[in-house]
Design brief:
With 323 residues, the protein is α/β, with parallel strands linked by helices. It has 11 helices and 12 strands. Helix content is 33%, strand content 17%. The strands form 3 sheets. A 6-stranded mixed beta sheet has the order 2-1-3-4-5-6. α8 packs parallel to α11.
Length: 323
């Protein structure tokens, strides 16, 4: 918000994708209203991702920022962030990456990606809620004015007529130390649990970091098994050479998502139902809500099988059309 308020003005443009979590849409709407900047949106491709060719059509000399998610928290698809950043940099556009959903599954290297901003969330990293982090490239950070003040880390010197602000300019007052330490511990534990292939991925996503081997397997098995379940529509992209994480959005034909959610909950299976804070994505897909199942590194292939078997049993109890 501090960067946007300081560097955006009337006529400038911010590009955001339609697959974003509301937390990467609403703040930019607020900034646009405050500065007179305009939001433009990138639609998802048939493969369920954001592609460079679509960015090339949207970007122009007025574009100042691209804000895009690394991994869709609804579809589980992985965007080729490196290629998107490279293209944006060719026309001097800043890039913010929402890595909240990629960090639990992928090796994320800000230097390799080349982005200017990157955000992560503690609750997605199995840490306490209410804590997260913002990475800002050093050259960009130095130009951002402080929007809150207080605390020792912000200043190198304070005199009666002026104060010298350090690079901790966005870290006013005392931080939530306990939550931050717990987050660091959770990240270290997660890093020790993920396993990656040597080298880079091949094919159309060769520039992207790889998905943890076990998570990639869970994603593949999940899609394969869900594809065998009758009466469902799957919105996540099908298995191909592109990496994905074990998250999948779907609906049961003719049945409200909350009904299916409740039936699975009775059997000890907990999945999300609704819009998952992604209303624009659901409107683009032409649906009002969806079911979303997600697995993590601690889950097993047997967990996936239990989910799909339980779903099949639940659907057998439903009439062909409820509404």
């Amino acid at each position: 918000m501090s960067w946007g308020s300081s560097f955006l003005q009337a006529g400038d443009e911010i590009i955001v994708s339609t697959m974003e979590h509301h937390s990467n849409i609403i703040p930019w709407q607020m900034i646009a209203a405050r500065t007179g900047a305009k939001l433009r949106f990138l639609n998802i491709s048939p493969k369920g991702d954001i592609q460079v060719k679509n960015l090339a059509k949207a970007i122009n000399f007025r574009t100042k920022l691209l804000a895009v998610t690394h991994v869709s928290h609804v579809l589980g698809s992985v965007n080729d962030i490196k290629s998107l950043v490279d293209y944006a940099k060719c026309v001097n556009v800043k890039v913010l990456v929402d890595a909240c959903q990629s960090l639990p599954y992928m090796k994320v290297d800000v230097k390799q990606l080349g982005c200017d901003f990157l955000v992560g969330s503690g609750n997605k990293l199995f840490a306490a809620g209410g804590v997260g982090f913002l990475y800002v490239k050093q050259s960009v950070l130095k130009s951002i004015p402080a929007f809150l003040t207080g605390g020792e880390s912000m200043f190198s010197d304070v005199s009666l007529d002026k104060s010298a602000i350090e690079c901790g300019r966005l870290e006013a007052a005392f931080p939530p130390a306990a939550q931050v330490l717990a987050l660091a511990s959770s990240i270290e534990k997660l890093k020790s649990s993920l396993v990656f292939e040597s080298g880079r991925a091949a094919g159309p996503m060769r520039n992207s970091p790889q998905v943890d081997k076990h998570s990639a397997l869970l994603g593949q098995v999940l899609l394969e098994q869900l594809s065998d379940v009758r009466r469902i529509t799957i919105y996540s992209p099908g298995p191909d050479s592109r990496p994905r994480v074990p998250i999948c959005a779907f609906n049961v034909d003719g049945t409200d998502a909350e009904v299916v959610q409740a039936m699975l909950r009775e059997k000890g299976i907990y999945i999300s139902a609704g819009t998952h804070q992604a209303i624009p994505l659901h409107r683009e897909l032409g649906i009002g809500s969806s079911l979303r199942v997600s697995f993590a590194h601690y889950n097993t292939v047997d967990d996936v099988a239990r989910f799909t078997d339980t779903l099949k049993l639940a659907l057998d109890k439903l009439p062909e059309k409820m509404w």
